[in-house]
Design brief:
Elements (H helix, E strand, L loop, with lengths): L1 H4 L2 H8 L7 E8 L6 H7 L12 H5 L10 H17 L6 E9 L2 E9 L5 E8 L7 H7 L10 H17 L6 E9 L4 E9 L5 E8 L6 H7 L10 H13 L3 E8 L11 E10 L3 E10 L3 E11 L7 E11 L26 E11 L6 E14 L3 E17 L2 E16 L1 H8 L4 H4 L6 E13 L10 E11 L11 E14 L3 E13 L2 E4 L2 E4 L26 E8 L4 E8 L4 E12 L4 E13 L12 E10 L6 E7 L9 E4 L6 E3 H4 L16 E7 L4
Parallel strand pairs: 1-3, 4-6, 7-9, 23-29
Antiparallel strand pairs: 2-3, 5-6, 8-9, 10-11, 11-12, 12-13, 13-14, 14-15, 15-16, 16-17, 17-18, 18-19, 19-20, 20-25, 21-22, 23-24, 25-26, 26-27, 27-28, 28-31, 29-30
Length: 693
């Protein structure tokens, strides 16, 4: 304990005003094998300064929140750690401290000798045999045979048993706990004797607190009905469902009585109390993205619209603000769009009005009807303008699992780079390409499945997400000839928390498209609509490639007759198949900053020319940093592309400007040009909001 005395002179001088208190630059633990650093830090009052205040340059600049030594609390922290260990089954623990001072800074280490623990050698649960599987109870309990005898886990085990019984209709179960701890042999014998009480059913559901919202809306939202066997899980999920409606600031679902008046009584009352929140909500947001430039959105929501729990949503979103008309910043703020043609730089917009009807045919289902007008462009690929509507019906199969059939019909047109049609269809003149630019109807029948188990959603730390979607466009659902195809996509992502600061996540995605064979321009071809094709490369797929530059691409050489110069631009033509795989490790540096290391792999192919194989995958590593924000993590990723310039056919615009010709046809003796590439150009910088997957 001599280290404690080393801090006294500094503390006395600080009180006399002779020098400031010492800043805690580092706080560490040694010898703690059974309790991690995070738990120990949370159990004591002494804290180290923020990460920025501990790093070299920012520390020298005086930035970041600083923590100072409190002599009294520092002494108490030794006792706090000892108490935590003794509660955790280590009665002989000793804690010492090591303090190093340097230029007004303090570096503190708690040296812990855990000693031999008292181990649980026998654990028995009685009284539950006729209600639940005893082995399942043992597996669910946080305290098991062979563990140190933790009083904290001992109490948590009681709560686990009660919850299991409450899920089977026994909310008033009594659990009598007993233990025999023997310090000499370092053993503990534990017994839980359970008196389950009667199995109860729900007699009635009482609702209170509603003002403008009908009680029927609340009753339809909760999962519990009169006559059902009581279930704690259904009670808990009903409370979550009430919050998810967005109509209530407070919701509580509980038993009306905390105990039965008579053991023979087997009927209970469920009490639901709510407090309504604001039923009209307005939101506004703005941001910046590498390929979206400046963007903004606004939305207005009316809950309980015309009664019945219906919801009206009005949404307006805009992107590529500053890239082109109506506010052109000469691409100074959007360098990633510098090579885009003017027609793909105009303002993108999405105007949507939708109304949602809950409890349609089932309390687990809701239907949404929406109308939209949009202009959407994909960098180096296409621009689409359309108006239409969609009707969807979402049915919740299980906890956070939904299946959603939907039908949409749109009237719109898609304009792609002429080289796209020349490559896929051998249609290379402006006159012939104009056929593909005419407005057409596109009807889409979709079936989507989603199982979302990630926590939290905006910045997942654990859990998984599985989604599958099939989209069909054909004449029977209102699609014109050039908009027909069948598309399927399957995606699985999983996140695993390693300690308190580290998260490892991975994602696999596969998709395929087929199209009917049609007679087009005197040819028998399978044409996949440009807007339905797969594209990859960029912040959410393979970050070592520029946006949409992974997969089938072509290059177009433009000659300038004025100075006889040659310019080369790249166009993504999309593919029929896609395969993506991502692995990312994230380490939290502080409350606001997170560092990341990732490896992305993927490929997109046009099935008529080759097949997707593992050997064709492009693998790119990278690093990044995330800044926490209310909208989700602001993400800066730098991907590295170890490959050379991707091979691609080169087309030349004819002097008349109305047709394309392969380079080899015009210049058979001159090799086609390729973009210049140096070492720095292999790095790709991506800025976006939200995690990549």
């Amino acid at each position: 304990m001599l280290a404690l005395l080393a801090l006294v002179p500094g503390a006395i001088h600080a009180q006399n005003g002779e020098q400031p208190q010492r800043v805690i630059r580092q706080l560490s633990f040694e010898g703690n094998r059974s309790i991690n650093d995070y738990t120990l830090r949370r159990s004591i009052a002494t804290t180290q300064s923020a990460a920025i205040a501990r790093w070299g340059l920012t520390r020298w600049m005086g930035l970041g929140h600083k923590s100072y030594v409190d002599q009294t609390e520092f002494r108490r922290d030794v006792l706090r750690i000892q108490a935590l260990y003794r509660l955790s089954g280590f009665p002989d623990v000793t804690v010492d401290t090591l303090v190093r001072r340097s230029n007004g800074d303090v570096f503190i280490t708690f040296e812990i000798d855990e000693g031999e623990p008292v181990l649980v050698t026998a654990l028995r649960v009685t009284g539950v045999e006729d209600i639940v599987e005893v082995e399942d109870v043992y597996q669910a309990m946080p305290l098991r045979v062979g563990d140190p005898f933790s009083r904290l886990r001992f109490q948590a085990s009681v709560d686990t048993i009660r919850t299991r019984l409450a899920d089977r209709g026994h909310p008033y179960a009594e659990v009598f706990r007993n233990f025999d701890e023997r310090r000499d042999t370092r053993t503990a014998l534990i017994t839980f004797e359970v008196v389950p009480g009667p199995r109860v059913t729900v007699d009635s559901v009482e609702v209170s607190g509603t003002e403008t919202i009908s009680e029927n809306v609340v009753r339809n939202t909760v999962r519990i009905r009169a006559g059902q066997t009581y279930s704690w899980s259904e009670q808990y999920r009903s409370q979550l469902d009430l919050y998810r409606t967005g109509m209530f600031n407070y919701a509580n679902v509980s038993l009306a009585d905390t105990a039965l008046t008579e053991l023979s009584d087997s009927a209970v009352t469920i009490r639901v109390h709510v407090a309504e929140g604001p039923l009209r909500r307005f939101q506004f947001g703005a941001g910046y993205g590498t390929v979206d430039c400046f963007r903004g959105l606004t939305s207005w929501t009316a809950h309980n619209f015309t009664g019945g729990g219906r919801r009206l949503d009005l949404f307006a979103g805009f992107s590529k603000i500053g890239a082109g008309d109506p506010l052109d910043l000469n691409q100074s703020a959007c360098p990633a769009l510098s090579d885009e043609p003017p027609e793909r730089l105009a303002l993108n917009y999405n105007l949507t009005a939708g109304i949602t009807q809950p409890f349609l045919f089932s309390r687990n289902a809701s239907a949404t009807l929406s109308l939209f007008a949009q202009r959407h462009s994909e960098i180096q690929a296409f621009v689409r303008e359309a108006v239409g509507g969609e009707l969807s019906w979402a049915y919740r199969l299980a906890w956070r699992t939904t299946i959603t059939p939907s039908y949409g019909l749109a009237w719109g047109k898609t304009e792609a780079d002429p080289v796209t049609y020349c490559t896929h269809l051998n249609v290379c003149t402006e006159e012939d390409i104009e056929v593909f630019r005419q407005p057409q109807f596109r009807g889409v029948l979709t079936l989507a499945y989603l199982r979302e188990r990630r926590i939290p959603l905006v910045d997942p730390a654990r859990g998984s997400r599985f989604s599958a979607e099939v989209r069909f466009s054909g004449p029977v659902v209102g699609s014109d000839t050039l908009t027909q195809c069948l598309k399927g996509v399957v995606e699985y992502a999983s996140h695993h928390q390693l300690g308190r600061r580290d998260v490892v996540g991975w994602r696999v995605k596969w998709g395929a498209i087929v199209a009917p064979q049609r007679g087009l321009q005197g040819q028998e071809l399978r044409f996949v609509p440009v807007e339905e094709r797969f594209y990859a490369g960029g912040p959410n797929t393979v970050r070592g490639f520029s946006f949409n530059e992974l997969g089938p691409i072509v290059r177009v050489a433009d000659f300038s007759p004025e100075d006889s110069s040659l310019s080369l631009r790249t166009s993504a033509t999309g593919g029929n198949d896609i395969l993506l795989a991502n692995v990312e490790w994230r380490h939290k540096l502080s409350r606001s900053f997170t560092a990341a290391v990732f490896v992305d792999a993927g490929q997109v192919i046009a099935r008529d020319s080759l097949y997707l194989t593992l050997s064709s995958l492009r693998i790119t590593p990278g690093v990044g940093v995330r800044l926490a924000s209310p909208l989700g993590p602001i993400r800066l990723d730098i991907g590295f592309n170890p490959y050379g310039v991707e091979a691609a056919p080169v087309y030349v615009v004819t002097p008349s400007g109305d047709a394309l010709v392969r380079w080899e046809a015009l210049f058979p003796d001159i090799p086609p040009p390729v973009p210049e590439q140096d070492f720095l150009s292999r790095f790709r910088i991506n800025i976006s909001i939200g995690q990549a997957f």
